[in-house]
Amino acid sequence: MLMRTDPFREFDRLAQQVLGSTARPSAMPMDAYRSGDDFLVHFDLPGIDPETIELDVERNVLNIRAERRSPAPEDAELLVAERPTGTFTRQLFLGETLDTDRIDASYEAGVLTLRIPVAEQAKPRRIEISGGTGDRKQISG
Known about the structure:
Blueprint: E1 2-4, H1 9-19, E2 30-35, E3 38-44, E4 54-58, E5 61-68, E6 86-94, E7 104-108, E8 111-117, E9 126-130, E10 136-140
């Protein structure tokens, strides 16, 4: 129901095997799971101003964009700059069984949480079947 794409994943895996280290750390790591009738996705975005986070859905593709600015003034002399800055993006391909019109997003303690409900038409339901004798039976679908 939830598909993830990362065109550089195979390059990273190969680089890790050859060089023994990760070529590029993921700037927007995520966890995704289903809980009841919702899919939940958590993105680690520490140090991100919530005003810079943009979410949009187009044809079941969810785009996430966030920007982390350097806290140092432009004229400062940087001694160490290990924390990534700039614009980070991620795409998730959502299955047809998810209700993209009712996505709920919240940001707390550096974690962006998306709650994506399962579409009503994708939920299991009971269907009545009438027999030739007029008896009606219910079958779970």
